[in-house]
Amino acid sequence: MTDEQLTLSSDPSAPRISLVVPAHDEERYLPDLLDTVDRARSRYAQGPGAVEVIVSDNASTDRTAEIAALRGCRVVYVAKRAIAAARNGGARIARGEVLTFVDADTRIRPETFNAIDAAIASDRVVGGATGVRLDRMSLGIACTHVLLIPMVWVTGFDTGVVFLRRADFEAIGGYDESIRWGEDVRLMVAMWRLGRSRGQRLVRLRPVKAIASARKFDEHGDWHYFALVARAIPWLFGNRGPADRIADRYWYGDRRR
Q1: Does the domain formed by 6-137+156-214 have CATH 3.40.50.720?
Q2: How far apart are the C-alpha atoms of 213 and 29, rounded to whole Å?
């Protein structure tokens, strides 16, 4: 199989929004996401056909690509095992004016595409994200939220469904494939810098916050984030060893079965 093997949509009309879903062995979670995407597409003011869904199959060994194709998604195969490469692989075949990105273990709100369309219609907005909440809560998860939320408030950087104009995505070079994690933060920084140069801002669409799986907390423990941050500190001083070990264990391990 080549690096990018495409299953193309039969719809000849150009969509307004492209939703890119990076996925490695996500047969368990992908159907739930696609159910919510279908509901959001049905509520979109420009019609369901104005949203295309691209599943970027990042070297899966399960039925991820098959499920995506059966659900009418466009599928692109990306051999390089890197989240940034998977996101960029989907973006390369996207036809929409607006690019959006969401993880496969997420569920989106019915009004998501309408909210994104309204935000991106403003020439004062460069892009942004919907934000996210987890599908369960505990004391440890709540304390992690308390740790992170001030940074979100100060920077405007958020996660969930990330969105920006395709032209701007291309202008900033997409996701940084030289790193194995943190590519989403770097994209936000690049968006912020581009927006600042043009008098634009990032926005957070809190009324349509996505719902994400708490599977990392299920696997690593509800308090694990504090230890994760401590282990990542050497990375700030140029020591890649700990960062690579964190990536192997936290993002690239075989945790889905």
Answers
A1: no
A2: 9
Distance CA 174, CA 3 (A): 18
Q: Which is nearest to 146 in space by CA: 226, 208, 204?
A: 226
DSSP annotation of 250: H
Cα 208 to Cα 161: distance, rounded to the nearest angstrom: 9
What distance in Å separates the CA atoms of residue 25 and residue 103, rounded to the nearest whole number?
12
Is pTM beyond 0.90 here?
no
Exposed / middle / buried, residue 190 (Cβ in 10 Å: 0-12, 13-18, 19+): buried
The tens digit of pLDDT for each residue in 70-88 reads: 999 999 999 999 999 999 9
> Read out DSSP for 35-88?
HHHHHHHHH-TT-GGGEEEEEEE-S-SSSHHHHHHHTT-EEEE--S--HHHHHH
pLDDT in tens, 110-131: 999 999 999 999 999 999 999 9
Contact assessment for residue 32 and residue 107, using Cβ atoms and an 8 Å cutoff = yes
Q: Give the confidence band of 20 by pLDDT, cuts at 50, 70, 90.
A: very high
Domain ranges of the chain: 6-137+156-214
